[in-house]
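Justification of computing resources. Each target in the renewal requires a structure prediction run like the one illustrated here; the chain below, 181 residues long, is used simply to show the kind of job we budget for.
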Amino acid sequence: MQEKVRSAGELAFIGVIIQLAGLLLGGLATLAGFIVELIAIKRLSEAFNNPAIWRNALNAVITAIVGTVVLIASIFALLLGSPLLLKPMNPHLYPLLSIGIAATFVVVYVFVLLSGRYYRNLYNELANSSGISEFRDAAKWTWLGVLLFIVIVGAILVLVGRIFALLGYNRLKEWKPPQQT
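Resulting structure tokens:
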């Protein structure tokens, strides 16, 4: 168990590093990092015999993917469905376009909240199973960042949460099971 946790921690650490580098390099690196981290989380879930870790990770990723698809579809619907591209827009349609944009933001924010909740639960489960407090900090900062995501500071707080997760994964590389008494 100890070696499985350590190797999964190292793999997750590498995955988060790739994700953070992907913020600078572009989308494919970020996607690759998420996949690597997801593989590591599956291994951690099995090593700790805690299926809630994997379930929360999977739900977070699925919710994020669905939210991204909804965002892209909404943007295309707003652009292709509006007469802005073809001719000057009828002033009577401005309120309708504003409602469409506002509805898109609200729906996407709901997906961000749901995904963030699953990430919070994932990190709390990792903290409970491993005894590593950085995962609890990652849960707290990720959740706070998600709640404030409408304001740009929320994205920075989510990044702080990812850094705490990185620190937690780094500590897993030296993890030892608690002593039984």
